[in-house]
Amino acid sequence: MTKQHADVRPGRLSGKKVLITGGASGLGLACAERFAEEGADLYLADLNEPAAAAAAQQLASRFNCQVGFSAVDVTQEDSINAAVEAALRTLGRLDSCIASAGIASAGISESAVDKSVLTTPLASWQKVLDVNLTGVMLTCKAVANHVVRRGGGGTLINLASSAARVSLPGNAEYCVSKAGVVMLTQVLAMELLPHGIRVNALGPGFIETPMTAAMREDPEGRARMEGMTPMGRLGKPVEIANAALYLASEESSYTTGHTLYPNGGIFVG
Ligand code: NAP
Question: What is the CATH number of the domain that holds 185?
Answer without folding.
Answer: 3.40.50.720
